[in-house]
Structures are given as structure tokens and as C-alpha cells.
TrEMBL record:
It is an enzyme of class 2 (transferase). Residues 192-413 form the Histidine kinase domain. InterPro entries: CheY-like_superfamily, HATPase_C_sf, HATPase_dom, His_kinase_dom, HisK_dim/P_dom, HisK_dim/P_sf, Sig_transdc_His_kin-like_C, Sig_transdc_resp-reg_receiver. Gene3D superfamilies: 1.10.287.130, 3.40.50.2300, Histidine kinase-like ATPase, C-terminal domain (3.30.565.10). The keyword Phosphoprotein applies. The lineage of its organism: Bacteria, Pseudomonadati, Pseudomonadota, Alphaproteobacteria, Rhodobacterales. Its EC number is 2.7.13.3. This is histidine kinase. Coiled coil: none annotated. It comes from Paramylibacter ulvae.
Amino acid sequence: MGLVLTSIAILEEQLKQERAARISAEGALTRFRDVVKTEAEQKKHLSERILAAMMSAPDAMALFDENDLLVAANKAYLSANGDGENRIEIGMSRLDILKKAALTGLIDFNGKTAQDWFDETAPNWRSEDFGESTLQTTDGKWFRITTRKTKFGDSVTYRVDITAEKMRALELEQARKRADIASSAKSAFLANMSHEIRTPMNGVIGMAELLAETDLDEEQSLFANTIRNSGEALLTIINDILDYSKIEAGQMELFPEPFNLEEMVLDCVRLLQSKANDKHLDLLLDYDMFLPTGFVGDVGRIRQVLLNLISNAIKFTQTGFVLIRVVGVTANDTDYKIHIAVEDTGIGIPSAKQAQVFSEFKQVDHSENRKLEGTGLGLAISKKLVEKMGGVMWLDSEQDKGSVFGFKIGLKSQTDEYYRQPTAPKEIYNIMIVDDLEQNRTILKKQLGALNLHAYEYSNVDDAVAAFKNGTPCDMVITDHQMPEQTGEQLAIQIRELGFKGPIFMLSSDLRNLKMSSANAGCFTAILQRPSLRDELYKSLNCVFDASELGGQPMLVESSALCNLENLPVLLAEDNKTNQLVFRQMTKGLNLNLTVCGDGPDTVAQYQKIMPKIVFMDISMPGFDGDEATRQIRDIEKMNNMPPTPIIALTAHAMAGDRDRFISAGMDDYLAKPLKKKLVYEMLERFSPTLAPEQQL
Ligand code: ADP
């Protein structure tokens, strides 16, 4: 009995457990059904919400299937073409919709016919070419149409009204155009103003210069010189103001191009050499021995900055020297940081005033400055130019001791123009350097050191002669010309008398005033302009031992100042009668064979007739201008296999950077009007054909 009871209890327990399990499974099923139902409802609800949002969106939206048939679209899309025949309906193809849009007359076809517009536009609307396009309607509205593909192969198109955005862009564009017109008008005004002022100034300064050279009493000569000096001062002011306003107007552009840095620095030195000579100042150049010469940069602007610094240094120095140092450091093979410093032994600038010299119209108030003309704009312009080139400018000065103005700019070097390692002739090793100025001796020693030559330095002729007598080894002598006690000429005479047969070079910064008897000149092997390119000195050294014998006339004379220009055929192309007269008068003493013509065609005709050795070419001339005349002359030369004739542009439009423009137009250099006698002479001397050695000195 007991066993039966136990079995029933077990059975009941099993039944209980099975019931509980069934109830729990039914509960799970119901819950599952509930979840599925809610999710389906939620999905439906969500799609309805999305559809409602799409319908009420202000921008047009449409959904196309993979066959490009319209599946859904909102009100903004459907109503775009209006009712009636052109109505858009679900199920239409994208191209049909486009065709209908074309026929409504709502779209601005930009002068095209509806058919042409459709043919042009249709390919862009194919569903595989998705992207963005803009559309203008005849009521002046603009729309951006964007189409994107969905992951189901459908494509959705949005059309957004961008009229306000377009209008703003249009206004901005118009404002930019107006600003461009105003700024080019300003540039043209500046250039014209420069031209208009320079032309009459040419008459004033040129004539005053000529007048000052005639027989005048003291008072008259004072008046004539005052007119000339004031005219020149006025021109400097005009140039500075023009440059400054260009920088301020943001119109200063840089034109980087390959150039030779050493030649450019030397050009600046030579240009200002006569000013330094007038004040008996030594103008020295120390170009880093290991720095290449070929770089890429805006040579016109770098020259402008350097000229400003050197002319300031000369202006504010009464005795001593002005030394230009060019050094460079390189981070890799092509990127150089070039440091150019101009050091003088002048009046200096008190430390409290140093910051202000770079500001506009700021001059240090000292007696020197009151005597000297200037605008106080030069350094402000230079600093801005250097900064525009990505560089910095600096100043180090001590009152009454001197100043160093310098700037640092980054320039890329040109590998093909790398400075080649020079060599010295094997016959020389020991060189005697005689110069009263320590800086000059140091520079020369460095230059000779690069050739592995050994230099003995002497600061005066007596010491050099004594050393020579004492048997100091000497294969060659390089001497300065003007020294306090005895000159280089006297040194040469003495050591030749002592039987020295080797080469003697003289370096002079004032070849123009070098007067020497031919007997004394015969003591020298070469007379060179100082400073000169490192290469020129090395070339001259190497030439010496090519000469069959020493003595007689110096074989190298680095100055055409000593040339005779008599009867040199020169062509002047200049339409302005006053300027013609100024040029004639200026060159009267040289007895040139001068032909003058007043327009472009006549210039070319005269060129062919007289075959001049030098042409001075005005730029603005009737017929055709100087650029065209130069082009024609260069063509004639090429056709006839003739060497190019030096052509010097004459221009009243002298903006900085012009020299490079003229050179690229086929000319050799340029002179800014008003013409200056000294500069005209320098050009004639520089470009006149080299004469045979016996005609020199
Ligand atoms: P400007 O030379 O036309 O007066 P700058 O801007 O070139 O104008 O120079 C501003 C001032 O800086 C000069 O007037 C002068 O007082 C001072 N200055 C410039 N360079 C030197 C220098 N090398 N030595 C002494 N003072 C100088």
C-alpha cells in the first residue's frame, strides 16, 4: 500500500512539473508574438513618420527605383511643374520628368532652345551619373539638385533652393570685380603719375646739370646746383611714395627667377662706387668663399633693399669704410639662408632711436640728417620687402661708432650655376698683399686662401719694400692704389727697380680718376676694378702666365673708363625734343658719332643703316614702342648672324623690377629718366666694344 502511495505522489509531482513547463512555454510564445507585433507596428509607424517628414519638407525630394521610375515624391517635387499636361506622376521615368520640366517654360535655358538644353542635360541625369548640378528658373531662382544611390539600388534626389546663397556669391564677385577695377586703376594712376612727373623732371634735372657745367659765377652755380639737387630729392621722394603705396595697396608682387647673387651685389657696389669715392670711403665686398652664386629670387627687390642699405651707409659715414658681407648657411643642398649685412663706420644710431628707423617717415634727428635729403621711407620699404620675401631685417648700431644693417632671406640655389672651385697657376704660391685697410687685406687673403696660396700682408709701401729687400719669398704682388704715404704706383716702381719680374696687380676702386704715365703703367701686369667678382680675380691670375712676356702695357685693364669713345656710332631713339637735347649735350664732350631718331620705325631703319655699337632706346615712342623696335633689331641680328648690339632702355616708368622686365624684352640694361650724365657715361663705357690694349691707359 505504501508503495502505491509513493508512486502516485511521484506521478503527481511529474504532472505538476510538466504543467509548469507548459505554462512557461505558452507565456514565452505570447511574449514573442507581442514583440513581433509591436516591432511591425513600430516599423510601419516609422515609415509613415519618415514619409510624412519627406512630404512636408520644404525642399523637393523624390525616390526612384533601379529602373529610374519615380516611386515616391513629396509635394514640393510633384508641384514643381504645376498641374495639367506637365504634371509629374508616380511611375514616370526620370527622363520624362526632365522633358516635362523643359516644356513648362519655367527653366532658364541660358539662351538655348528647350530641345538643345534637354539634349545637353539628359546625359547628366542618368541614374548612374549621380552628383550635383545647378538649375536656374525663369523667375530668377537657383536650385541645387543632388542625387544619391541607396543600398537597395534606388536613388533619391533632393532639390534645394540656393537663390540666397547664389545672390550672396554674386554680390561678393561683383564687389571683388569693383575692387579689382579700382586697384588696377590705382596702379595705372601710379604708373602714369610716375611717367608724367619724370618726363618734365628730366628736362629740369638734365638742364640744371648741364647749366652747372657752364661758366657760372659762384652764386649762379649755387642756384643751378640747388635746382639739380632739389630735383633729385623730389624724384627720390616720388619713387619712395610710389613703392610704399604699392606695398600698402597689397599690389607688390614678387617675381622670383634665377639670378647670380654675387653679380647682383657687385652691381650695387659699382653703382654706388662713385658716391663712396666722392667721400673717400672704401666700399668693400666680402662674399662668402664657399657660397654658390646662382640662386632663385626676386632679384629686383633684393637689389632695391641692398641699394637702400648701402646708400644709407655711404650717406651717414664721413670717414672709414662701408663693408658688404654676404654669407650663407645651408640646411640641405639647395635651401640657403642668405645673410647680407652692410657695415659702416659712420655716425651710428643711439639705441633709444633704433626701433623707430624702420617706421614710416622716421628719421633720427641729428645734424647730419638735417643736411641730407631723404624721405624716411627707405628702411620702412626695405623691411616690408624683406618680410614679403619671408625674411627678417635687423640693425646693430652704436652711436659715433657705426651701424650694421642686415637682412636674412631664404633662397633656393641653382645647382647648375654652382660656383666652381677655382685653381691657381702653378707658378705662384707666395703673394705679397699691400693695402692700408685691414678689411681689404682680410678679404683678399681669404680669396687667395681658397686657391691654397700663401699671403704676406703689409699695410704700407715701406714695409713691403723692406720685406722684399730682406728676401721674403714673393711670386706675385697685389697692391692697393691710394694709400696714406706712398701709392701702389710708387710701390711697383720700387720693386721693379729691385729687379722683381713677377706679376704685379693693382686693385683700385677709382679707375676713373687713375692718371698714370705709360712708363709707370708698364710696371703693372694688371689693373683691376675693386671690388670685383671672385671669378674675375681668379681668371686674371690664370691669364697672367699665358702672356709671353711681362712688362710693357698691363695686359688686363678692368675699366672701360679708360676707353676712347670718339666716333663711336651710337643710336639714340627718343621722341621728346628736350630729352634729345639733354642727351646730345651730355655726350658732347665724348665726340660720339650720334644719330638721333624719334620713332620706332625710324629707329629700326637707322639701325640697319648705321650699324651702331650701342643703342639707347626710349620705351614709349610713336609708330611702335621700344620693346617692338628691340624685337625687330634682335630679329635682324639673328637673321644676319650678327652679335647682339647692346641696347639700353630709357624709361620714365621706372618702377623697381623694371630692369628685369627690360632684360627679358631683349635689352641689356636700362636708365631711368631723368638721365644723369654720370650714368649715361657709365653705360657707354660698360657697353662700348673692348679696345686693343695699346689704346688703353
Ligand atoms: P632716409 O634715408 O630717406 O631718411 P631711411 O628709412 O632709409 O630714410 O632711413 C631712416 C633713418 O634711419 C635715416 O634718416 C637715418 O636717421 C637712419 N639711418 C639709416 N641708415 C643709417 C646708417 N647707416 N647710419 C646712421 N643712421 C642711419
